[in-house]
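Job type: complex structure
Entries:
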Amino acid sequence: KAGVTQTPRYLIKTRGQQVTLSCSPISGHRSVSWYQQTPGQGLQFLFEYFSETQRNKGNFPGRFSGRQFSNSRSEMNVSTLELGDSALYLCATRGLAESEQFFGPGTRLTVL
Amino acid sequence: AQSVSQHNHHVILSEAASLELGCNYSYGGTVNLFWYVQYPGQHLQLLLKYFSGDPLVKGIKGFEAEFIKSKFSFNLRKPSVQWSDTAEYFCAVNPTSGTYKYIFGTGTRLKVLA
């Protein structure tokens, strides 16, 4: 089956702009989680969606938001970008019968 | 607060050397445990997982990990590393009750010298 896809793969923005990232899960997976990966910090959990509802949220400011659609696709939005938001944003999906998460290739966001 | 500690941030080994990467977590309840690997330019993939049963689990590419409940540890091992094992390794914990969160460690960068 097809893996997790994320678009775009690379993005360059300037401070103050906003950005929307997209994640399409593996077919049948209804849980979608988002992570921010930076060198030395590992993966920081942003939020998790299941059946269009946010089930969990990490410790990120309100500038970071997300949503999930009825087809389980998810989007993540970051408003008023800051230099420190430069990172690899990873999406991971999980099926009902599985505890392991499957990761997408990530979106590399650079804020100038 | 729940956390995962990976004590080795950078490890350099020669081919054929043995590997052990430490992982400790802080959570009092039952957990599922994972090791993920990220090869250069590739996305994270599962190396091995522990849910229950035999605390010694075997994964892909000759890796294994041992869950020691009393020490809250889940160390990753490989008896003989290869150059192709150069990658970043992440330990992750998923509490089995009350949350769907996965908590990751900060990662260990392994470089294997040919």
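Summary: Chain B has a mean pLDDT of 93. The interface with chain A takes residues 6, 9, 32, 34, 36, 42-46, 49, 51, 90, 92, 94, 99-107 of chain B (CB under 8 Å).
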